[in-house]
Amino acid sequence: MFRIHKIYDVNTATNQQLLSQVQAMLRIQFNELSEKDIAKLPAQLANPLKYRFHTSLLVAEDGHAKVRGFALLLHAPDLQFCFLDYICAGRGETGGGIGGALYERVREEAFQLNVLGLFMECLPDDPALSPNPDTRKQNIARLRFYERYGARPIANTAYETPVSDKDSDPPYLVFDNLGQKDKPLARDAAQAIVRAILERKYAKLCPPAYIDTVVTSINDDPLQLRAPRYHKKSSVSSSQPHKHKIALIINDGHDIHHIKERGYVESPVRIKSISKELARTDLFETIAAKKYSQSHIEQVHDPEFVSYLRKACAAIPEGESVYPYVFPLRNRARPPQDLPLRAGYYCIDTFTPLNANAYKAARAAVDCAMTGADCLLDGKPIAYALVRPPGHHAERQSFGGFCYFNSAAVAAHHLSLHGKVALLDIDYHHGNGHQDIFYQRADVYTLSLHGHPRYSYPYFSGFEDEKGEGLGKGYNRNYPLPENLDGPQYQKTLQLALHKLNAYQPKFLVLSLGLDTAKGDPTGSFQLMAEDFHRNGELIGALKLPTLVIQEGGYKTQTLGINARHFFSGLWQGMSA
Fold first, then answer.
1. Contact yes or no for 393/266 (Cβ under 8 A)
2. How many Cβ atoms sit within 10 Å of the Cβ of residue 164?
3. How far apart are CA 258 and CA 264, in angstroms?
4. CB contact at 8 A, 439 and 468
5. What are phi and psi of 326, to 5 degrees?
6. How confident is the model at residue 343 (pLDDT cuts 50, 70, 90)?
7. How far apart are the first and last CA of the chain?
8. Residue 104: which of 189, 164, 176 has the closest Cα?
9. Apex 132 CA angle, 131 and 136, nearest 5
10. What is the pLDDT of residue 330?
11. Is 393 labeled as catalytic in the residue annotation?
């Protein structure tokens, strides 16, 4: 098995290990490359201005950080084209589907960039250009592979003219229109693209006169491709790649955690209210949650705390709930031996109960959040973990505020292995769990907009002067807000937070979405309406970051789903603009 994900940040230890393996594969399988060209790969990924292309590295790895193949894709946004620089499966990997999966991911990546098409070079199958039969056999196999997708050499040009008389096997320029049959490539655009390829990639090899000769040989308008030689009809699909939607991961087993006491607002109907409204849009595709090991939770929560929740919940009879009522603040070194009594040792309030299903539901919520995080690594621009119980009040060693495990923090830590993360909390209540877990870290920047702790839960954190400690100093920011705030007032502060967030230059955004900022929510005092949620989503989407949304609060079920629908419509609109 393997999975394909994009390298977003060359500075993380995980990605440096993958990069090193890719460079080793380049040395082995592309021995004509100089060590200088191989060594510049990290700089290519990090510095598009210098190399005049935005470079994306897509890696197929086995889940244990072993690279089984890769593709290097160059994007020229000024001319709206992509160029496939390298695609490679590891030695012994042919026939395992890696090459096909990588190329399909490359096509999908290019299509999402809204380009005119995808270009690449392939060595020729013409005996006059490739006299060696063994070499020509390999060239034919590659051209046959790409022709399955509708990609064929450009016809009637001098691109395959050797630069010098000593050169053999001069490459064709192959074009894949990504199934965009309604967008024929005009001659002027083709000439500009070919000039850019030759000048930006081969300026040291191709003299200006040679480049001019190749460019002026392009006369067909629109551009023409060579007639198919190997497939009368594309056997895979030359249609457009799949257009991304928002990946929706629902905690299907959430309703096992149902507290029926009167006034307990964190109820199963919340998920039903939201999912019903989301179904009215065409923005979502539902994805099943995967199962993840407990070790992911223990990366952000104290293992003893995790073990306690599991054992305590398992010991409570079905249908009963235990509410913390003893809080051993004076001697935390000696927690009570009785598990129900020990609840107060790990809890921050008196209204978050333990029961037989709290642990199970919280674990499932984490699975949904982790599935969403992996959706981002797999190339989806937005994922939404629609879960309960929520998680943003769960600290490293405590639960509370209806929260048991901090799903957003688990997902943020997972993503931080691949690049810097911004964790933005727009729930009505302060994200004290996020703050506690990442307070001494600089790789996850935590921001929270919330009701001022003078009058809003959790009361003891969320003040403006709490800005992080140690390595995390300056990487926690709170925006405590006054009561009775309306939408435009909220958006002024949100824009300030987004400005700070953007300056951090994260590779991923994890968004704790609380809909309890709505007018009439029983737990809040803000006055946001449906149009305000749309505008908030639009502002956040305009960051154009791979975004994982985790559901937190929101308890006015009459408007909960409507506000969620408006938020995601705005988020999608902002991301797509």
1. no
2. 9
3. 9
4. yes
5. -120, 125
6. low
7. 36
8. 176
9. 90
10. 45
11. yes
Exposed, middle or buried, 290 (CB in 10 Å: 0-12/13-18/19+)? exposed
Picking from 5, 7, 17, the residue whose alpha carbon sits closest to that of residue 46 is 7
Please give the distance of CA 44 from its chain centroid, rounded to a whole number: 21
User: 272 is written with which tokens?
Assistant: 């039903």
For the segment 407-417, what is each residue's pLDDT rounded down to a tens digit? 999 999 999 99
Lowest mean pLDDT among 12-21, 89-98, 550-559: 89-98
Q: How crowded is residue 240: how many other Cβ atoms within 10 Å of its Cβ? A: 14
The Cα 339–Cα 355 span in angstroms is 12
Tokens of 397: 């060693």
CA distances from 296 to 30, 292, 369, 405 (A): 38, 7, 11, 11
Lowest mean per-residue pLDDT among 113-127, 145-159, 253-267, 405-419 = 253-267
Residues 404 and 394: their CA atoms lie apart, in Å, by 6
Tell me the two tokens of residue 205. Answer: 């090899």
Q: How many other CB atoms sit within 10 Å of the CB of residue 488?
A: 9
Q: Which tens digit of pLDDT belongs to each residue from 482-529?
A: 999 999 999 999 999 999 999 999 999 999 999 999 999 999 999 999
Q: Which residue in the list 5, 392, 393, 413 is annotated as catalytic?
A: 393
User: Encoding tokens for residue 263?
Assistant: 């006034």
Q: Residue 14 half-sphere exposure, CB side, CA atoms within 13 Å? A: 18
Name residue, tokens 């199963």. 268
